[in-house]
């Protein structure tokens, strides 16, 4: 029975392209989290400002907000496979430039922020292409929800390993080595893409103006209430709750009186919880109500934030960091699974661009907001308030998601 459950949990690996993608992304994501951890630590070490950490996140993610809709149109018009090859190569070059800059010893804050903004531009085209491409990698569509969940689990495994490794490397060798490791990690995902086999790409017969395609995507969202509510939920979480991570360096260095390794272990503990949450999601039975997973995980996140904010002793804080991790990534994983499963095939790129816009648009503004508030009232009180807000958001959107919908008569297959 246990063997059958394990086979069911990892059933998406029956698809060759997906297995290659999973293996390559696993290595690359570890490097990405190492770089992200190192950038935030370098900025905080230079400025000792939570607000500046928020501005760093803003610099990286706001360009993605500005360009994500265009990225969605590009993902629906052109080969997502070729788009990924381009974006992953560009991300590798960005990591190389960051490594050269830091290792030269002449880096200043504005240069790091500029390279972070360049990565945000790359991600604006990478995310809308990469997320829907999972559909093309999975031959048996019954494995799709499992593949999306395993993809989230892989990201969270990297979120566990990457920061912990980064903390050690930062202490022993410095941030530049973290950036070099990230640059090398992109070779794994690029190699996995080159080994994949796809049917020849067939471009859309009729290409419309970008503005027309964007308007078409917006009309589609207006006609699919359930997807729209999920996108608004992600926007609220990204603005008010998920930017809690801008305060983790403050807890590590100021409240727990630690160093880069302390920060790495805290972020790794959050990653461990997130990994457990997504494996739990991946093990969900076919036909399970993922919206209940979504709402439950937001409540868990709220409880974790409240409890973590009250602790001033590092070893005791680690279990609560794990609880935060369980609740922090599962809402995104569950929402993306539901959205990609329910969205029309020809609309997935644009729908995912709106999802990316909700995340990349609200997250940078939320990071600025939370960073500024924590500078005034302290990181502990700010995080406590975020925990209360998370529980209130779960209650509000629980009513909206399970409100009896008005009967819809629109034939979505006619939208083209």
Automatic annotation (TrEMBL):
Q: Which InterPro entries match?
A: MFS_dom, MFS_trans_sf, TM_effector
Q: What is the lineage of its organism?
A: Bacteria, Pseudomonadati, Bacteroidota, Sphingobacteriia, Sphingobacteriales
Positions of the Major facilitator superfamily (MFS) profile domain: 12-405
Main location, first listed in the record: membrane
Give the UniProt subcellular location, in the record's own words: Cell membrane
Domain of life, per UniProt, equals: Bacteria
Keyword Membrane in the entry? The reply is yes
In terms of Gene3D superfamilies, this protein maps to:
MFS general substrate transporter like domains (1.20.1250.20)
Q: Gene Ontology terms, cellular component aspect?
A: plasma membrane
Q: Does the keyword Chloroplast apply?
A: no
Q: How does it sit in the membrane?
A: Multi-pass membrane protein
* GO MF annotation terms: transmembrane transporter activity
Q: Which UniProt keywords apply?
A: Cell membrane, Membrane, Transmembrane, Transmembrane helix, Transport
The record lists the membrane-crossing segments as 20-44, 50-71, 83-102, 108-127, 148-168, 174-199, 227-244, 264-282, 294-314, 320-339, 351-371, 377-397
Mind telling me what this protein is named? MFS family permease
Q: Which SUPFAM superfamilies match?
A: MFS general substrate transporter
């Amino acid at each position: 029975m246990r063997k059958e459950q394990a086979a069911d949990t990892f059933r998406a690996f029956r698809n060759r392209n997906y297995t290659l993608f999973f293996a390559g992304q696993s290595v690359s994501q570890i490097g990405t989290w190492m770089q992200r951890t190192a950038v935030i630590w370098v900025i905080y070490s230079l400025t000792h400002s939570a607000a500046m950490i928020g501005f760093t996140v803003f610099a990286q993610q706001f360009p993605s907000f500005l360009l994500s809709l265009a990225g969605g149109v590009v993902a629906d018009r052109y080969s997502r496979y070729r788009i990924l090859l381009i974006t992953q190569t560009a991300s590798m070059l960005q990591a190389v430039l960051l490594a050269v800059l830091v290792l030269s010893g002449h880096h200043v804050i504005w240069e790091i922020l500029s390279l972070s903004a360049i990565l945000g531009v790359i991600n604006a085209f990478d995310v809308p292409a990469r997320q829907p491409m999972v559909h093309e990698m999975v031959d048996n569509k019954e494995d799709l929800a499992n593949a999306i969940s395993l993809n989230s689990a892989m990201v969270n495994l990297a979120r566990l390993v990457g920061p912990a490794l980064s903390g050690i490397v930062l202490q022993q060798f410095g941030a530049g080595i973290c950036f070099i490791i990230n640059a090398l990690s992109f070779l794994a995902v690029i190699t996995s893409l080159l080994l994949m086999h796809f049917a020849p790409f067939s471009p859309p017969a009729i290409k419309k103006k970008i503005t027309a395609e964007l308007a078409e995507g917006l009309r589609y969202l207006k006609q699919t209430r359930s997807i729209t509510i999920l996108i608004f939920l992600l926007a609220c979480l990204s603005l008010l709750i998920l930017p809690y991570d801008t305060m983790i360096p403050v807890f590590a260095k100021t409240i727990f009186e630690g160093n880069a390794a302390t920060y790495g272990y805290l972020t790794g503990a959050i990653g461990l919880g997130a990994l457990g949450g997504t494996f739990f999601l991946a093990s969900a039975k076919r036909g399970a109500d993922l919206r209940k997973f979504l709402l439950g995980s937001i409540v868990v996140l709220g409880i974790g934030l409240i409890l973590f904010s009250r602790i001033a002793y590092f070893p005791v804080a680690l279990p609560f960091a794990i609880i935060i991790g369980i609740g922090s990534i599962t809402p995104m994983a569950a929402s993306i699974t539901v959205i990609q499963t329910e969205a029309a095939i020809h609309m997935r790129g644009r729908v995912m661009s709106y999802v990316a816009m909700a995340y990349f648009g609200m997250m940078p503004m939320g990071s600025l907001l939370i960073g500024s508030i924590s500078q005034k009232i302290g990181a502990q009180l700010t995080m406590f308030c975020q925990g209360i807000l998370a529980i209130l958001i779960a209650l509000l959107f629980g009513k909206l998601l399970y409100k009896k919908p008005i009967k819809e008569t629109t034939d979505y297959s006619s939208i083209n």
